[in-house]
Amino acid sequence: MRNLLIAAAFALTPVVAAHAEEQKNPISVHVLSTEDGKPAAGVEVVLEKRDGSGWTEIAKAVTEKSGRISSLFPTDQTFQKGDYRVDFKTGDYYRKIGHDTFFPEITIPFTIEDTAQHYHIPLLLSPYGYTTYRGS
């Protein structure tokens, strides 16, 4: 029984570490394919902040094997209230895997009111549809 508990603890270590990393950085994303039920690795994601009447890019990253970007907000900047958006470059992703898609990019705007919170933006993706929500 003791060995089983130790094995279970080691199995959860990467999940706990990934969650702790997400909590240090205020913005994370996760892309999952609803077509095959697997993470979407290799999706470029651009984070922008509203700057007057336009948008300013503040970060860019690519989803890992797990479909995640745990630390999207730049560590050298102060997280501020305001309007942000993430732009998922889904057309490039689908071209790389040899698949057609109707949505060449998916842009999700959101508002930050409380900079003490963590904001997680999941994207459930298929070639002809998508769903998102505020994750935890």
From TrEMBL:
Known function: Catalyzes the hydrolysis of 5-hydroxyisourate (HIU) to 2-oxo-4-hydroxy-4-carboxy-5-ureidoimidazoline (OHCU).
NCBIfam families: hdxy_isourate (TIGR02962)
Superkingdom in the source lineage: Bacteria
The protein's Enzyme Commission number: 3.5.2.17
CDD domains in the record: TLP_HIUase
Gene Ontology MF term list: hydroxyisourate hydrolase activity
Leader peptide range in chain numbering: 1-20
Binding sites annotated in the UniProt record for substrate: H30, R68, Y133
Keywords: Hydrolase, Purine metabolism, Signal
Domain (Transthyretin/hydroxyisourate hydrolase): residue spans on this chain: 22-135
Name of the protein in its database record: 5-hydroxyisourate hydrolase
Subunit structure: Homotetramer.
Family: Belongs to the transthyretin family. 5-hydroxyisourate hydrolase subfamily.
Catalyses which reaction(s): 5-hydroxyisourate + H2O = 5-hydroxy-2-oxo-4-ureido-2,5-dihydro-1H-imidazole-5-carboxylate + H(+)
Gene Ontology biological-process entries: purine nucleobase metabolic process
UniProt lineage: Bacteria, Pseudomonadati, Pseudomonadota, Alphaproteobacteria, Hyphomicrobiales
